[in-house]
Amino acid sequence: MGVEERRQQLIGVALELFSRRSPDEVSIDEIASAAGISRPLVYHYFPGKLSLYEAALKRASEDLASRFAEPHEGPLGARLLRVMCRFFDFVDEHGPGFSALMRGGPAVGSSTTNALVDSVRQAAYVQMLSHLGVTEAPPRLELVVRSWISLAESTALIWLDGRRIPRAELELQLVHDFAALAAVSAAYDTDMAELLRTMVKDEPADGPFAELAGRLMSLAS
Amino acid sequence: MGVEERRQQLIGVALELFSRRSPDEVSIDEIASAAGISRPLVYHYFPGKLSLYEAALKRASEDLASRFAEPHEGPLGARLLRVMCRFFDFVDEHGPGFSALMRGGPAVGSSTTNALVDSVRQAAYVQMLSHLGVTEAPPRLELVVRSWISLAESTALIWLDGRRIPRAELELQLVHDFAALAAVSAAYDTDMAELLRTMVKDEPADGPFAELAGRLMSLAS
């Protein structure tokens, strides 16, 4: 194998292990053994576990960010629901590693790790704005989108801790949560109210936004 | 000064400095100088900057957790609003230190630091349940409360980054966000619907929950 090919193979093997168990618990010996090479050879390609962890996290970050891409077609609620489904696919595939990272894993405090997590959040933010048809977000919209992204992270973490609620329910709930947070903001701000109107105007009667509104109306009465 | 008295003084001086600037940027020399003692004497009481940082964070955590205590009297919305106001007081007083900690500060990855942050989240969670009159939370209620706590953290962090929205608006918004997240959950779950009814049944017409409902109704029409 060439150098780059071997590096990519090691990253794949490490990511697989870091995804299934907390990265703290995965040793270089284990990575070497899973890759079918010697421990010194691993160190030939990566100076230490942290650099291999960072490389694996970089690949996972790019993978997750790529799942946010969604065609600008059809109703917004359905688009958002498809993205949430892919987000939970990712969380499901990388559960223990995702938890360890987001709860303060072995490399937290590493500026590389923080920058990677931030780059994924930023990719999610940019995608959301593009689907909302906004280029420059006013402060209240920025707050709604960024705080909803953090809500999606914490919802996924709570789900991983025991999986006591079916994930499909949480995917839909996060779509609804976005509408709810936007509505709270719209209740006090005319720009947000305008944006909310644009958001829901093309929603079909059987879409997630209309369904939520219907259920809330019947709950209120 | 006695040993314990001197330790407490140093913690106070350090917390003050860590609150005003990112803890990364605060040196032991500066702490010594602010406390009016020599650098070696600081090391006599604390083996290094990390242990002093952890002691300061412990004091700040206890301070924040104590601000969640709220008498179980009067409407829930008003109680929650008072707690949010005290939470933003704390965030305001400790801005740069709070940001650095929550975004991955110098001691993140330290298990002591993570445990302190988790203890504050747990204190907030326990307080919320007690105000909701619940001892054992079912999974959907736990999710709503814990994810709302993380929403409060991220809202505070976004506020600190430029303070572009008045904090009083955000304090009220977080009370509304809690009601909104509970309502989304209640739309699909009968237990949550029952809890939501209990939550709002004693709310006055001029309380935050009723005001939000009124505004949302007029927005929808």
From TrEMBL, chains A, B:
Q: Which residues bind DNA?
A: 27-46
- Give the signal peptide, or none: none
| Alphabetized InterPro entries for the sequence | DesT_TetR_C, DNA-bd_HTH_TetR-type_CS, Homeodomain-like_sf, HTH-type_TetR-like_transc_reg, HTH_TetR
Q: Where is the HTH tetR-type domain?
A: 4-64
Instruction: List, in alphabetical order, the Gene Ontology terms for molecular function in this entry.
Output: DNA-binding transcription factor activity; transcription cis-regulatory region binding
What keywords is this UniProt entry annotated with? DNA-binding, Transcription, Transcription regulation
Q: Where does the source fall among the domains of life?
A: Bacteria
Q: Give the protein name, as stated in the record.
A: TetR/AcrR family transcriptional regulator
Native source organism of the sequence: Streptomyces actinomycinicus
Lineage here is: Bacteria, Bacillati, Actinomycetota, Actinomycetes, Kitasatosporales
